[in-house]
Amino acid sequence: MQALSRFNAMPAVSRRLARGVLRAAFHARPSPSQRSHQHLPDGLRQATTPVEGNTNRSETLSNLDVLGSIPAPPSAVEATYIDGFLLNNGIRVHDGVILLNNEVFQWRPALKGGPEESKAKTRGMLELVEEAWGLLDVVYPKPELLILGTGAKTLMVSPKIRTRISELGIRLDVMSTHSAAAQYNLLATERGGSQIAAAMLVGGFGK
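^ thats the sequence. predicted structure below, dont judge the formating
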């Protein structure tokens, strides 16, 4: 898997751990050179222009571009949907995403209609399983900031999540998924994709 190439400098045991975690939960975005002759991973496909009037599509984020003269990172988000994302490179992801080091990984720590969403609706708080942060455990160097998109609205996050991210030496910023995508685009363009990461649930989560 292409994204694992960045871990080649890690000790052998850590590399095996990284491969196990990533294979189990994540799929990397193919590079442009690979995309022409490889099948896209499960959950990824070449984006098509949505049908006019499609209510599944949220406001596009290109309208919020305030750094138009600076090239956007490959992992920039063009639009958010209730069930996924349209990336700046034209790929549509039907799932949550982690954007890290200019790579895009599918992320599914909570399902629509699952217990996490039920708790979010009744308590206004997001709780996720420990394994949701496995990618951040193995990546090096770690980002300075993680922008967490909590779905249709901004939710409080459990103390366990805040402690987990803090122990990794990463600052956490929490907001709705649409706002998180816009914030990621701005900061990753301004400061670089290696310093800024985002973990975003689908836009319809908690709606």
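Residues 59 and 103 are 23 Å apart (CA to CA).
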